[in-house]
Amino acid sequence: MSPFHGDDLYFASLADLGRALRAKTISSAELTHLFLDRLATGGPRFNALAELTPELALLQAQRADRLLRRGHVASPLVGIPYGAKDLLATKGIPTRWGAPPFREQVFDYDAAVITRLAAAGAVLIGKLAMVELAGGGGYHYASASLHGPGLNPWNVNHWSGGSSSGSASAVAAGLAPFALGSETWGSIMTPACYCGITGLRPTSGRVSRAGAMELAWSMDKIGPLAHSAEDCGWVLQSIAGHDPNDAATARHKFVFQRRVRRHGFRLGVLALDYGTAPGGTETEEAFEEALRVLRGAGMKVAAAGWPDYPYTDIARTILGGEVAAVHEEFIRSDRLEELVDTGQKEGLRGYLTLTAADYARAAKQRINAARAIFEMFGRFDALLMPTLIGEAVTLDTNLSTRFGGARGASVLGALAGVPCLSVPMGFGPHGLPLGLSITGDLFCENTVLQIGMAYQRETDWHRRRPSPQEPLSLPLRLV
Fold it and tell me: Where is this region: Disordered (predicted)?
């Protein structure tokens, strides 16, 4: 008899699902069938599904059940279904990168993270939709995807965020217990915030990117999206580690420290200009309440000033130069015109005009900016700010004007490669989620996770669920 009631199973923590599997109140095969059915039905509703993987999932679930019967449970993820962003290679299964020119693309190997999760006993139930080419060209509209705009489970007239749109929607709607996303510059933080879930951007080099679509080699990172900080910690433990197939991976071992150190964390607050941004007042109020909660949990909170650097300009030049180097042949080809978003195409072409001198100057500035960021961690264990100002934008929002030039946790990761956790911190004026970002020093994921877990023990924002949403009557496509 299942220990879950109603839809509770679909929003259960990884620990609770693991206990049910080990107690044999539900089998991995049964759990997998339930989530396959739910993803097959709900995935298209939110434009979140790229490819269902039932044959592979059931084979992996049967293997997990054999391990569970024998008591061979070396990983907390044994038997638990998940979804993967569609830029991660999966052997014999389409990997389309969210882009029409690559709709027929199939690899004969698995990405390193897919292999590691299989070894941990997790069950891949589907590939999840994303913004085309991870949005590297600077897309203008949410519709910049082969699968249409990512729809937010809290309100389908609003965006789920990019570029890991399908991963976030799937977790928020209870279509998968957790999912893998990727971030070059905001692609885990934004959808986690907009969809009211928890997202972890690991340190650059913490997780192998072998077998993932390359966008910008010095910025790309792969990380989990889940219901809680604790869930993210368990997933990271399974996918982290050195990989000879990714020369940038570090040899630092990651072991998730679940026990929360409640006292003594020094938290620095990075000020943002809330100005007249929609939802700015509500974001500021929710952030102040989050700081109050953290103080009440025994943490020390003080102001931390932003080092004075043109973060966005530096990051954009580095990104553009690396994207051009990787994708030059495609950008110069006629296939570029098959992309959905006009801004994306223009941005990619524009990267070809960058010079070696442009890239070199930005690389030098990046070193200085990163050093200034690292110096802040001499005074603070972590840096706090709202993940974004305001709620999820509507599907017709011009993203180039909405996000242009903003400071935030995402640019810190793009430039300095530091880890960050985004956790839900309340709701805005239209009932859509807001996010709190916790940024740590290099390889200090356990610090940001422990702060996040302490916050989530005092609040219940991460346990809130969206009401069932009906899809739009017509798909929205803007270019």
Answer: 460-479
Whether residue 187 lies in the annotated active site:
yes
Q: Is 75 a catalytic residue?
A: no
Amino acid at 332: R
- Residue 345 among the catalytic residues: no
Looking at 13, 75, 160, 163, which residue is catalytic? Answer: 163
Q: Are strands 382-386 and 300-304 parallel, antiparallel or unpaired?
A: unpaired
pLDDT at 473 over 70: no
Q: What is the residue-averaged pLDDT of the chain?
A: 94
Q: Where are the alpha helices (DSSP H) in 112-262?
A: 112-119, 165-172, 189-195, 229-239
Residue 272: pLDDT band by 50, 70, 90 thresholds?
A: confident
Per DSSP, the three-state class of 193 is helix
pTM for the whole structure:
0.96
Catalytic residue among 13, 27, 75, 85, which?
Answer: 85
Q: Quick check: 270 and 384 in contact, CB under 8 A?
A: yes
Give yes or no for a contact between 413 and 201, defined as CB atoms under 8 angstroms apart: yes
Q: Which of 187, 204, 238, 422 is catalytic?
A: 187
